[in-house]
Recombination protein RecR (Granulibacter bethesdensis), 202 residues
Amino acid sequence: MGGPELEQLIALLARLPGLGPRSARRAALRLLQQPETRLLPLASAMQNAARAVKTCRVCGNLDSADPCSVCTDPTRENGLICVVESVGDLWAMDRAGIYRGLYHVLGGVLSALAGTGPDALNWPALMRRIESSRTSSTPVTEVILALGATVDGATTAHWLAEQLRPMGVSVTRLAQGIPIGGALDVLDDGTLAAAMRARRSA
């Protein structure tokens, strides 16, 4: 039905989060019904993004600039670093508009089941950022651990807090507002705001 090109499009769409085979078929149909205004612009935007977007060497964000627009924003509070699990979490925090410091993407959390240990996480770069900031006019004074309220997130936050304490910075965690088992990138802005305001020592 529809030939291999259509089946390939549906199969690729079905790999996206939140899209199963049926949703992928509906999305493919909508795109193909108006290829000039939907499919071709989308394909062009995807090609442009694939060529231009890169990982920020400082914080791990995705941007067309390296360092990214967050790291180079002169209005940011350079003394604060908010540690998140993923780029999606960074975008969720920044979209809420409740935090104006810098970020650091860990790239995952510790997980015994998944076999993810400290070596798989981007935490040594965080330590280097803190250390190198000591000679700047705005050294890092606080690290906020904004990890999901899951068992793995809590384990990672506890472990990371232990690594950070000898660095002489204040280490805080998000508090009320984050439900147990909740992921940051699906929370509403109000919930994120409440959690940021009520952060506590880790």
